[in-house]
Design a protein that fits this description.
Helices cover 0% and strands 56% of the residues. By secondary structure, it is an all-beta fold. The chain is globular and about 45 Å long.
Length: 119
């Protein structure tokens, strides 16, 4: 089983920055993609950013160059640097690991960390 623990959320003013971190542990064999999703009240969960094991990245359309996803192999974390935050970025941010073992892909999720952008 893959365990994911997020940290780094909080309250920030519009235009500010936050850095989220996801600590990865457990049986990670077969994990081929990791990323961040977010869910705001009464909205569907949406992709923020993903990074593959080869380092390829993908971002949601709303990111527009403001966020950067990265992996720290020494610390075994997946980090999300968020700059120029807007009130519309307020949501619970969830870490995701996608794994293939012997059947269909399996999605693992962290518990989420709240990000609130407000003055």
């Amino acid at each position: 089983q893959v365990q994911l623990v997020e940290s780094g959320g909080g309250l920030v003013q519009p235009g500010g920055s936050l850095r989220l971190s996801c600590a990865v542990s457990g049986s990670t064999l077969g994990v081929y993609s990791m990323g961040w999703y977010r869910q705001a009240p009464e909205k569907q969960r949406e992709l923020v950013a993903t990074i593959s094991m080869s380092g390829s990245t993908k971002y949601g359309n709303f990111v527009k160059g403001r966020f950067t996803i990265s992996r720290d192999y020494a610390k075994n974390t997946v980090d999300l640097q968020m700059d120029s935050l807007e009130p519309e970025d307020t949501a619970v941010y969830l870490c995701n690991a996608r794994q293939v073992v012997s059947g269909p892909d399996v999605d693992h999720w962290g518990q989420g960390t709240q990000v609130t952008v407000s003055s």
